[in-house]
Each structure stands twice: as C-alpha cells, then as structure tokens.
Amino acid sequence: MSDPDPDPVLTVSAGLHPAGPVLITVAGELDFSNSADLRDVIRDTDFTPQGTVIDLTGVQYCDSTGITVLVTASQQAEKAGSPLALAGLGDSLRRVFAIAGLYEVFSCHPTVDEAVKAL
C-alpha cells in the first residue's frame, strides 16, 4: 500500500497572452498546502493597464485559502488600476463563487480568450 501524496500537485505559470495582458495559468489542487505558489506568482506580477487573466481551467479543487489568494490578487490589481479577469471556472468553483458572492468581486469568463476580450 502506498502512502497518499501529502501535498496535492499544483502548477502555476505566468507569461504574456498574445493580445498583451499577463496570463497566469493555474492547474491542479489549490489549497492550504500549496496556495503560497500562486500567492508568490501574484505578488511578483506586474499589474499593467493591459490587465491580467488568471486561467483556472485546470483547477480541480480550491479551498478557502485558494479563494483568499484570488481575492488578494483582485485587491492588488485594483490598487494598481489594472483590470483582472478569471477564466475557466469549473462547476465546483462556480458554485463556491455563487454561494460566497464572489461574482460581485471578479469578472469571470468561460475561456481565456473571452476574458482577454472583456479586459
């Protein structure tokens, strides 16, 4: 019997979308054990007038710690005068956003391209 993986895998990458905004791509399980990975990328992001899209298409799970990191990103972008949009929320994340009233905080879109157009 193998031991369960104590730290769920999360990958976070940042780059530029061809249309100009920063694109942060997140995949895996975003929770207490690894949310610092996303927090660090967001902290180091240069929020510019072209805006930032956080692609959550590959996120299978997100706990309250992950939500807190996303809210912090929204506050950081707002402080910089930079638009922020989220893309690719799965069913469970959409339910959490609806229950918590986060659609009032975030601009959410089905795809990265739609999020970029909305910026």
Annotate the secondary structure layout:
Blueprint: E1 10-16, E2 22-30, H1 35-43, E3 52-62, H2 64-79, E4 84-87, H3 91-100, E5 107-109, H4 112-118
Parallel strand pairs: 2-3, 3-4, 4-5
Antiparallel strand pairs: 1-2
Helix pairs in contact: 1-2
Largest sheet: 5 strands, mixed
Question: What structural category characterises the helix and strand content?
Answer: alpha/beta
> How many individual β-strands?
5
| Helix count from the secondary structure assignment | 4
Percentage of residues in helical conformation: 25-40%
DSSP strand content: 25-35%
CATH superfamily: STAS domain
- CATH topology, what is it called? Transcription Regulator spoIIAA
Low-pLDDT residue spans: none
CATH architecture: 2-Layer Sandwich
How many structural domains can be distinguished in the coordinates? Answer: 1
> Whole-Å distance between the termini?
49 Å
Computed Rg = 14 Å
Give the C-level CATH assignment: Alpha Beta
Could you say which overall geometry the principal axes of the C-alpha atoms support? globular
Order of helices and strands: EEHEHEHEH
Strand order of the biggest β-sheet: 1-2-3-4-5
Give average pLDDT, whole number: 91
What would you say this structure looks like, in words?
This protein is of the alpha/beta class. The protein has one domain: 2-Layer Sandwich (Transcription Regulator spoIIAA), CATH 3.30.750.24. It is 35% helix and 29% strand. The protein has a five-stranded mixed β-sheet. The chain is globular and about 30 Å long. The chain starts with 9 loop residues before the first strand and ends with a helix.
